[in-house]
Amino acid sequence: MSEEIPPSKTQIKEYHGKDFGLFFEPSSILYDQSSSFQHITVIETESAGRVLLLDGLVMFSELDEFLYHEMIVHPSMVSHPDPKKVLVIGGGDGGTVRELLKYPVEKIFLVEIDPEVIEVSKRFFPKISESLNSEKVEIINSDGAEFLRNSKEIFDIIIVDSSDPVGPSLSLFTESFLDDVLSHLSGKGFYVSQSGSPIFHWKHLREFFNLVRRKFRNADIYLVPVISYPGTIWSFTVGSLEMDIKEIRRKPPEGLRFYNTDIHRSSFSLPNFVKEIFE
Ligand code: SAM
Questions:
Q1: Is 143 in the pocket of ligand 1 (CB under 6 A)?
Q2: Out of 48, 92, 124, 240, which could bridge 112 as a Cys pair, Cβ 3.0 to 4.6 Å?
Q3: What is the predicted pLDDT for the residue at 167?
Q4: Which element (helix H / strand E) includes 78?
Q5: Ligand 1 center to residue 19 CA distance, Å?
Q6: For residue 157, how many other CB atoms are within 10 A of its CB?
Q7: Whose alpha carbon is nearest atom 5 of ligand 1?
Q8: Burial of 164 (0-12, 13-18, 19+ CB in 10 A)
């Protein structure tokens, strides 16, 4: 049995199931306040670096954020022949934008509902959020679904890097939102959405993927291991009209730590328990 946890240690816990989950024993709590949308916490830990939590759920840790941010961006950016205009919904920490700026895109719209998340990221995660200062990035503080509904733009890539479909993110997983994605996506475009854990959120994943499959000619799921997420295995759902995201059409940027073209191909191979979700 592990030794008793010394009572003096503060613990920040995220429950993944009724009786187990992830905990941190932070060396300090750097920020802990509610915005008008959610509760924002930043903690310092020895083993995982700094961690951002929203409403008590881990958004990323400095230890493993590269896994998620590389994999939400590079498969579609390496498969699209020449993406110029990109929409990111959520992603106020800047990690997704940082990866996108490794390509010669012309413009990135970042639609983040909560300006506090951007401020907190700039203050405590400068290396992740510095990309938000790029002149190629236009930041809009709005609900992503409302922005898309009223936008006149057509995008080559639309990425939904939102929190889980509870609270403010709910609007990003509806049929009407997908209809708006379809009417704002170019012919060769890709729509990529974080779609949760195939272990703990499999009902949501099944409903959401079946909706994407109904709306788009091509629909795929790919997986990535993210240490600090529930069940570690995390999913991304992809919709496209003409293009197959499993095809690699460009060289990836140098210096990536997780993504490479072998990972690109293998991440679309699904384990049996995930295939069974859709049978
Ligand atoms: N990597 C994280 C994950 O997979 O859970 C997501 C990180 S990012 C910090 C999530 C962001 O989505 C938050 O900053 C949140 O404010 C934003 N968000 C949630 N709902 C939104 C909406 N409807 N429109 C725009 N941004 C939204």
A1: yes
A2: 92
A3: 80
A4: helix 65-79
A5: 26
A6: 26
A7: 163
A8: buried
Query: How many angstroms separate the CA atoms of 173 and 164, rounded?
Result: 10
Contacts of 200 (CB under 8 A, 6+ apart): 16, 17, 230, 231
CB of 65 within 6 A of ligand 1: the answer is no
How far apart are the CA of 59 and the centre of ligand 1, in A? 9
Q: Which residue owns the Cα nearest ligand 1 atom 19?
A: 169
Q: Identify the helix (H) or strand (E) that includes residue 66.
A: helix 65-79
CA atoms of 141 and 128, how far apart (whole Å): 19
Query: What's the whole-model pTM score?
Result: 0.96
Q: How far apart are CA 257 and CA 225, in angstroms?
A: 13
Burial 195-216 (b: 16+ CB within 10 A, else e): bbbbbbbbebbeebbebbbeeb
Closest CA to 41 of 57, 24, 25: 57
Please state whether beta strands 57-61 and 49-54 pair in parallel, antiparallel, or not at all (unpaired).
antiparallel
Question: Minimum mean pLDDT among 3-7, 136-140, 183-187, 200-204: which range?
Answer: 3-7
Torsion angle of the four alpha carbons 137, 242, 256, 123, in this order, in degrees rounded to the nearest 10: 30
Mean pLDDT of 243-258: 97
